[in-house]
Amino acid sequence: MNHHKSRGLEESTAHRSTSNWQSRMVSWLMSDGLKVQEVPQGPATWCVLVENAVGHKVTVTQALDRADSVIVAGGCTFDPQSLDQLPESEREAFLWDLRLFLVQLGLDFVGVQRPLQQVTVSLPVYCEGLTHREFAGAVRRTFLGVFAVLGVVARRLGTPGPLREIDTTRVN
Any idea what the Cα angle at residue 96 is, between residues 104 and 61, rounded to 5°? Predict the structure, then answer.
């Protein structure tokens, strides 16, 4: 019986902790002048859409099974034929250069493949001992990562074409 009480207390404490982290992170984002909007959670404990002054967006999401961390994610889409602008012999090298560039930035990523349609960059942020400065840096690095992908693709392939927001609320 004590085991059940203990487990219930742990779950209650975890929920309070999650709620505290969410409100703390939202407060930090707003104090940095960013627009914050809560979005439907999907398979997450909570998720907010964060928009900077120029309209770029990332999400901050806490997965259901990760009370100790959040994921900051953002991304962009491209015309699936965009790589066709490169000679066949250069396409794989370009993708490897882009992958290594994102690794150098310290970002996780998906979608750097053929065809190049959608690239999502993300950064896990662990809550224990987290400061406003560290969290703001992770959000900024994710914004810059999306911008870097756009810049590298535009520089190498020409204008990346019309971009649309991608749903990063599903990144775990």
Answer: 55
Please state, in angstroms and rounded to a whole number, the distance separating the CA atoms of residues 64 and 43: 7
Domain 2-157 has CATH 3.30.1460.10: yes
- 138 vs 158: CA distance, rounded Å: 29
Q: What would the DSSP string read from start to end of 88-146?
A: HHHHHHHHHHHHHHHHHTT-EEE--SSS--EEEEEEEEE-TT--HHHHHHHHHHHHHHH
**Residue 117: other Cβ atoms inside 10 A:** 15
Q: What is the pTM of this model?
A: 0.83
118-126 and 108-110 beta bridge pairing: antiparallel
pLDDT digits (tens, 9 = 90+) for 86-124: 999 999 999 999 999 999 999 999 999 999 999 999 999
- With helix as H, strand as E and coil as C, how does 44-84 read? EEEEEEEECCCCCEEEEEEECCCCCEEEEEEEEECCCCHHH
Confidence check: pLDDT of 170 > 90: no
> pLDDT tens, 2-26?
544 444 434 434 444 667 899 999 9
Q: Which residue has the tokens 């970002």?
A: 107
pLDDT of 160 strictly over 80: no
